[in-house]
């Protein structure tokens, strides 16, 4: 411990420095979560003239029999697992590529993070155009390559709409993953590889023996961030498919949004929020436990 | 820049991979650009035209003449810059405090700050909606500026804190001997030092605030107060049976240009901030 | 001390001491100046655009979905011409009407809706009224005035004891059929579901017509409206407005689902039906290769345009029904309400009076093929000359109108129904199971479990 100045002198500045940030975080993060917890025990909807009435765990009971809730949860899981897995593999490949030295690497790296920086909602409009059933460029290219005989209605078919969303999400967020992993690669000393190579290992072997284990912390962080973000995906889905066709791409966050903003069912919306929150916390906790203490320390 | 790559593979395969990567990243954006300068007849034609012989700026004209896209740009820019300034002003002292001052329960505070960076915004939606109602902030820039500031605080605090920790303590000791108060020292001596870090986190905040959709979509219902992402997503044609593909593509280009510029100028900073925020946290 | 600072800057960023500050700072300063200039310019432009003199006329704001925003132009101009102290600002919203509903909802929830006049779909009234967003108009209109409107349209504007919507135009679902094809085969227009299936199959076989019956099967509000008609035709009900009882799992409802399912399974309706909304079915019908179409009045103008291949070959009838039951015509339609928190209640009321006038509505009807909510226009010679079938429309509505459940939670109830209808059409659930689940969830929603 460094010798600290007397408490009486620093306390006012500590308070002044820290209090605004803490207060704002409590207001914007703390209040909504606490409020959702409280409101989830109430029925407050059009049936009660928007007046809150205590209903205990009624909202949670309703969720059990709510087919749409389970359906959206399934959609969210499919989207999250598929998108995050592809992004990890692709992100790692891109990071390995960008880790090499080549002419114009700076420019390539710049372009490689571009998708991440662009507004999701705006590019969702662009992706909807790319997947357009009549004039979309995806159909045009596939037809030129004779991979399909006629245009495909990408956003009109339940399974293909989900595929389109995942493609757009992979495009948008793989750069984030590869930036994280590239930083990890750069922190691995070169002599490790050299020593391994002298021992007669192939590059493929040293990838499994050195790169992957030493990259674990970054991989874990990437998974954690991407999982949480995909689990709450809203703008991409809202703009590209609106949750359709036939609810096949509706995610939990779209359902929460509709419950609150369209149905004015605030109590039930709060209960959905709380359950989503708990699911997220539980998954993250399990992930951290699986990473073990070593991984946790490196986080 | 002396160490050689760990291994060498056929140059052709490598070049091909780089080219594919470039296409993957750029093609969706370039396709919007091409679409936006095509005449309507060329947009709605099969097979697609990849190199339009006729070009037009009419779709852009439509955005700025028939629709208030200057307004939308202003709204996005104003909200993003205000959030960025506010976030740095609130986050930097807090980061300094967490780096240097004796705080009871500091690791708890840091842990909580780290955890909230994982929160999807939909979890905040219902509560923020109530706050916006309670304070009468509907159709008020503050309804966006305040949440954007708060949402970017954790990253700002974590990145700035790690920068402060790298500064030498003797600097502060010297300043205190010179009779600076903590506030003066932060403002006059440490701030110039951390300017590069401020730029890094500021750019990330700006990008987030420019791009945010959920709150902008909900809290701004007046046409003249909408931000670019919301306005683009809600752009519709003159009739129910016609989608304005040209203006939509043009709007996509307009909404992304400021960010493309940011990335071109500040690529290094963005990477630095992203990795620092995620790894050093 | 300066030395110390410089040394640390260079160490942090691994740059030579000379370059260390200038480059990032220049870039930053340049970017900031550029942005500040851009903001100043757009800001001034913004101010200039919104500045108004203090004696400016009162401006009323109204949000309309895309086609109607254009169609309202002429009567809005006339309103401004006749009321120089008032301005009507029409905001052009998205084309999907449920997106308009969402925009209004968000604006009202936030407490300061910018819209003074609310153009209301009949299905929104209970929700908007229950939430307390609309001005109660019952004291402003005498029973005699209300009697000038179609009773179904007036009923659609009521919630509990209040009246929240002045009817403007009405809508009803009906059956369009190709009289030339039926005549050629010597068939009468069908009256029952079985007759419709028989006529379709016969014409598909004998006349080489592609499709017998076109309807809207996509998961969206139009599916609920269409189903409400078929359900009524089988003698069933969705939600009883008096008792809130739910009838979706009763035999009539299951029969209705089975009928619709059968049209697709037997090739009378195209396999893509489950992705069709009104425009897709209209487009198919207009190509001339289909016999029957369920749709709204606006279709009349579309099929009789000069470039239409089936111009003059189309007739209308009430929707078919089961033997011994009555046809159903889903009542749609739009009217005007007033934001309860408007700053200009009197001006808004003057606007309602203006747009409720017979001569204004007549102009709107003649310019667009819509049906006015005013009963007197059915006898207007100009309208009859322009739309020979106009009186039939009004008669269909008078005799067969079916209201979608006037409950505040309607949007949610409709989504439940749509979801399970889609599940039944796609074959992932049997009609009985799907409707049992739909009924259960609807009861849970309405608190009548």
Q: What can you tell me about this protein's structure?
A:
- The complex is a heterotrimer of chains A (299), B (281) and C (449).
- With 299 residues, chain A is an all-alpha fold.
- Chain A has twelve helices and two strands, in the order H-E-E-H-H-H-H-H-H-H-H-H-H-H.
- Residues 1-8 of chain A have low confidence and may be disordered.
- With 281 residues, chain B is mainly α.
- In chain B, 74% of the residues lie in helices and 0% in strands.
- In chain B, helix 4 (69-100) packs parallel to helix 7, helix 5 crosses helix 7 (142-166) and helix 9 (182-211) runs antiparallel to helix 12.
- The model of chain B is unreliable at 1-7 (pLDDT under 50).
- Chain C has helices at 2-13, 22-50, 66-71, 73-82, 97-109, 125-130, 143-146, 151-155, 179-184, 193-206, 221-233, 251-265, 278-286, 299-303, 345-355, 358-367, 381-386, 390-400, 410-425, 431-446, and strands at residues 58-64, 86-92, 117-121, 158-159, 162-163, 166-172, 174-178, 211-214, 290-295, 314-317, 329-338, 371-372, 401-402.
- In chain C, strands 3, 6, 11, 12 and 13 form a five-stranded mixed β-sheet that branches. A four-stranded mixed β-sheet of chain C has the order 8-9-7-10.
- The longest helix of chain C is centred in the N-terminal third of the chain and has 29 residues, at 22-50.
- The model of chain C is unreliable at 1-29 and 42-52 (pLDDT under 50).
- Chains in contact: A-B, A-C, B-C.
Please supply descriptive tags for the structure shown above:
heterotrimer, B: 281 residues, mainly alpha, MetI-like fold, 2 domains, 74% helix, globular, C: 449 residues, alpha/beta, D-Maltodextrin-Binding Protein, domain 2, five-stranded mixed beta sheet, four-stranded mixed beta sheet, disordered N terminus
In terms of quaternary structure, the protein is heterotrimer
CATH superfamily of the largest domain in chain B: MetI-like
Count of domains of chain C: 2
Architecture of the largest domain in chain C, CATH level 2? 3-Layer(aba) Sandwich
Radius of gyration of chain B: 23 Å
